[in-house]
UniProtKB/TrEMBL annotation:
VOC domain mapped to chain residues: 5-128
Molecular function terms from GO: metal ion binding
Entries under InterPro entries matching the protein: Fosfomycin_Res_Enzymes (IPR051332), Glyas_Bleomycin-R_OHBP_Dase (IPR029068), Glyas_Fos-R_dOase_dom (IPR004360), VOC_core (IPR037523), YwkD-like_dom (IPR037478)
Annotated organism of origin: Neobacillus niacini
Keyword annotations: Metal-binding
Name of the molecule in the record: Glyoxylase I family protein
PANTHER family given in the database record: FOSFOMYCIN RESISTANCE PROTEIN FOSX (PTHR36113:SF6), LYASE, PUTATIVE-RELATED-RELATED (PTHR36113)
Domain of life: Bacteria
Length: 128
């Protein structure tokens, strides 16, 4: 195999408008295109992350809840690299997002923290 990079990450949300607001307004991701797929009664919003990666935000009627705490098998979390974690944590707390205390990775000595999207998907900020 010759994998080059992650092309996109797909996230299914329970309330499309709430999650769209969170990923666009709170996290600052840039919408690329939004389509409604009538045959699935589903929206799909493509989001750009700093011009490099893409997150696909989906709505589906009545998706099952995500297994969380204790962690279930599958995707554990979504992680974003940031330059200054304190600034980003201050922003999130300023828009009423609950953020864990900043920790230090014992192997890399880098700062990181976690918060959750509206459906409880864990999101990590990692300072590089």
């Amino acid at each position: 195999m010759n994998l080059k990079k992650i092309h996109h990450i797909a996230v299914i949300c329970s309330n499309y408008e709430v999650s769209k607001d969170f990923y666009v307004r709170v996290l600052g991701l840039t919408p690329i295109r939004e389509v409604y797929r009538e045959e699935r009664d589903s929206y799909k919003l493509d989001l750009e992350v700093n011009g490099q990666y893409q997150i696909e935000l989906f709505s589906f009627p009545n998706p099952p809840a995500r297994v969380n705490n204790p962690e279930g098998a599958g995707l554990r979390h979504l992680a974003f690299e940031v330059d200054n974690i304190e600034v980003e944590v201050q922003h999130l707390r300023g828009v009423q997002v609950e953020v864990e205390d900043i920790r230090i990775d014992p192997w890399t000595q880098k700062k990181f923290t976690f918060f959750k999207d509206p459906d409880g998907l864990p999101i990590e900020l990692y300072e590089c």
